[in-house]
Amino acid sequence: MAAFVIVTTEFLIVGLLPALARELHVSISVAGQLVTLFAFTVMLFGPLLTGLLSHIERKRLFVAILLVFAVSNALAATAPNIWVLALARFIPALLLPVFWGTASETAGQLAGSLHAGRAVSTVYLGISAALLFGIPLGTLAAHAFGWRVAFALLAGLSLLMAMLIAYFMPTLELPRRMRLGEQARILKDPRFVAHVGLSVLIFTAMFTAYTYLADTLETLVGVAPARVGWWLMGFGAIGLIGNWLGGRAVDRSPLGATVIFVVVLGIGMAASVSLASARGWFEIPFVLWGVAYTALFPICQVRVMRVASHAQALAGTLNVSAANAGIGLGAIIGGLVIPHWGLGTVGYLATAISALALLTIPLIARLRSTRAHAVA
Q1: b/e for 99-131, b at 16 or more Cβ within 10 A?
Q2: Which of 155, 161, 297, 309 could form a Cys-Cys staple with 73, CB 3.0–4.6 A?
Q3: Distance between CA atoms of 316 and 15, rounded to whole angstroms?
Q4: Rounded distance between C-alpha atoms, residue 51 and residue 317, angstroms
Q5: Is 355 exposed, middle or buried (0-12, 13-18, 19+ CB in 10 A)?
Q6: What is the C-alpha to C-alpha distance for residues 155 and 68, in angstroms, rounded to an integer?
């Protein structure tokens, strides 16, 4: 449930971009850089803050994070201009990777190594729930009452979740405190670095297209603004299937699962653009896109954490930082492409980036087998 609030805070902006751009008198490309700001903040500060805070008892840490999210969402609801709104996006971005790194680690430890993928995918149901309910309902609320109401509702939810965790969550054993240098040893492992780089490519592909999904539905598909939220809800409902499939596939073969869903992602994004005006056909690639998009969140997280032999909280956060680097790059790439070549181009470009990610996977697989052979 906390993950639902966290993810909705990060991605709600996607559904609000058209309304934000109109009210704040900025272009859709400029508004899209709020996504970049959030993502790059996560990328730059996430590993350091997680390393510094990973020793804090989890209940206390999660309550503090959600209180910060409540205050920042309240600030976003009252922002008079895009600069104050940018500040309200910057603050929670500092703590989002701390949450994901520690929550994923805790879930994996509780479930055991054989079922870590399923456990992490359960936490990642918060992403599916945000796609299914949070982002679409926020978009619908913004259309009916204004985008500020959407952020105000999210501030209230953040506060409620802080209270629920404080009341219901048991106090856990204090994690062992590790020095930053000891945790950072994972950065010397070329396999780990390669897996993190793969996450950057995958999320760049995903968010080159997804950042502008609401505008794509309005402009290319011809969905009325009042109905965009329902389409986003459908995308999230499809994602429940992807989350379930991804959590099970990654336990069998992390790289194999990555290959399958990156291929499906690329096909879905490209075909969604080419069939945008063909109602009745457009829904097929839209479903493929939604399934692969959501499946790749837990797949990438588990894939990276499996490579790390220690400091899994930091490993999980480094993957979240890598993902957000990709999110920011995707938003930038889409924002640069749209004014020059049009909105329809982003789907094809996103597919090209996913193809590039696929080409790196055999290299990573050989690197893994080479190191294993050397150890043997």
Answers
A1: bbbbbbbbbbeeeeeebbbbbbbbbbbbbbbbb
A2: 155
A3: 27
A4: 9
A5: middle
A6: 10
Which whole-number Å values give the CA distances from 49 to 71, 97, 204, 219, 295, in the listed order?
A: 19, 8, 23, 40, 27
φ/ψ (deg, to 5) at 175: -65, 155
Q: How many residues does the chain have?
A: 376
pLDDT in tens, the chain (376 residues): 888 888 888 888 877 888 888 888 888 788 888 888 988 898 888 778 877 887 788 888 999 999 999 999 999 999 988 899 999 999 999 998 888 778 877 776 667 666 766 777 777 777 777 767 777 777 777 778 888 888 999 999 999 999 998 998 777 676 666 565 655 667 778 888 899 999 999 999 999 998 888 888 988 888 888 788 888 888 888 888 888 888 788 878 889 999 999 999 999 999 998 898 887 789 999 999 999 998 998 899 888 878 875 666 677 778 888 888 898 899 889 889 988 898 889 999 999 999 999 999 999 888 754 444 443 3
Do 326 and 201 meet the contact criterion of CB atoms below 8 Å apart?
yes
CB 8 within 8 A of CB 153: no
Contact of 46 with 321, CB cutoff 8 Å: yes
**Residue 47 to residue 317: CA distance in whole angstroms:** 6
pTM of the model: 0.74
